[in-house]
Amino acid sequence: MIKEKILVAGATGYVGGLLVPLLLEKGFSVRCMARNPAKLAAREWKTKDRVAADTLDPASLDTAMERIDIAYYLIHAMGSKGDFKRKDIQSAQNFARAASRAGIQRIVYLGGLGREADGLSDHLRNRQEVGRVLSETGISVTELRASIIIGAGSASFEIIRDLVKKLPVMITPRWVQSRAEPIAVDDVLFYLIACLEESRTINQVLEIGGGEILTYGGMMKQVAAVMNKRLVMIKVPVLTPHLSAYWLNLMTTVPMSLAFSLVEGLRNDTICHDHRIRKWIPRNLIPFQEAVRRALNQKLPDSRWTEASGESKELLSEKDRHFFKDERLVHTDVRSEKLFGIIQRIGGENGWYYASRVWRLRGFLDRLIGGVGMRRGRRHPVQLRAGDAVDFWRLETMIPGKMIKLRAEMKLPGTAWLQFKVSESARGSVLEQTAIFEPDGFFGQLYWIVLKPVHFFIFRNMARNIAAVAERKQT
Questions:
Q1: How is the chain split into domains, by residue range?
Q2: What's the rounded Cα separation, in Å, for the pair 471 and 389?
């Protein structure tokens, strides 16, 4: 049997990053698509067919869809800047039209559960509208609708885990009584692949769940039981979605921009009413507590929600933009590869090599105003790949052994980058550390000027300490 040529749009997102290697194991020819080509290049997948394309840029999609039979659509704009609902619809329209032009046979889409009659939240209504938009061009669409996905690296699971871990007594809003049918990420991936070989799933909207209907409060209690934690829940009627999202922003890894969209959808029951897929594609579904155990035992997720980032902003030349710089040059006696190894451990539990309390304070203040803060940490304590979140930074570019460029994702009156370059010298190696800030108007310029003395000490000593750590490690 000749396997179809498959496009995975959103290949570096949470589900896409797990799906690609499984499709390759099944023998499918897979083309991976994402906005950032560096993120694609960083993945150690057994396919070289990778294409950079943006669903908000229709012209970029035609090349991505050449000679494709089936396309997975695993893209959403939730948590991005601006009107994410408009972006989601425009993105789906562009994708469907390009797929129609390319003669693609079928689109597989992962959406969200919820019944229109129950008055869906804007977030869930938007997810279901995307499914309708994808089918408007006449292409066959298989839409799988899921509730909370339980797996290492899932944003929804990390919220529950963090709350249980940090709060033995929890004041909870009404939405903890909403019902959901959580599903293990392994079951989601199974259905996404198995539907390709079941013709009855074509042109169908199918609901997938784990078989256990639980309230959100019930899920938190079961997670607490698995973690051997004691959990007391006190329900109050006064926590609005905004207050709940703000609370999640402070207490979990999920930032305000994502927390509000998730909380808004929690007021709706998200359970399966249609069980056809269980008859068409039999599966021994993973029980909720077993899915939780698997997620907790996987300390280093293969994919994580933090890897799905918003729009990148390119760093242009000095003549094209006005920006401020703090440049540091440090000569060391160590080999360049040793120095680079120390640099790529930056952030997370390893810290920032100087003024750790100041970094944590900056992260706390960022959380207070709805930013990502420092809680995202790192995907891996030593390894880095393009697209990784590193506390409140995002790794935009990495040239192994030579260069790392981070872009700030904290709340700022402008855009900031932190760049490290390593080169060899007659003595050993040279570290070139550059902090770059592009101000957004007057307040951006004022921000840099006011904090310049702080930046002077932090960046100077950080560069020195990186070199010093590398020299100590070499002896």
A1: 1-146, 150-182+213-270+279-301, 324-474
A2: 27
Where is 15: in which H helix or E strand?
Answer: helix 14-25
Residue 95 to residue 72: CA distance in whole angstroms: 11
Whether the Cβ atoms of residue 96 and residue 84 lie closer than 8 Å to each other: no
pLDDT higher than 50, residue 315: no
Whole-prediction pTM value?
0.83
CATH number for the domain whose boundaries are 150-182+213-270+279-301: 3.90.25.10
Domain spanning 1-146: CATH superfamily? NAD(P)-binding Rossmann-like Domain (3.40.50.720)
Fold classification of 324-474 is: Alpha-D-Glucose-1,6-Bisphosphate; Chain A, domain 4 (3.30.530)
- Please, are residues 91 and 58 in contact by the beta-carbon 8 Å criterion? no
Q: What is the DSSP letter of 381?
A: S
- Is there a contact between 401 and 420 (Cβ–Cβ < 8 Å)? no
Could you read off the pLDDT of 53-80 as tens digits, one per residue?
999 999 999 999 999 999 999 998 655 5
pLDDT digits (tens, 9 = 90+) for 215-264: 988 999 999 999 999 888 887 766 566 677 777 777 777 777 677 777 77
Residue 314 pLDDT class (50, 70, 90 cuts)? very low
Residue 465: phi, psi to the nearest 5? Answer: -70, -35
Backbone angles phi, psi at 62, to 5 degrees: -60, -45
The stretch 45-56 carries a mean pLDDT of: 90
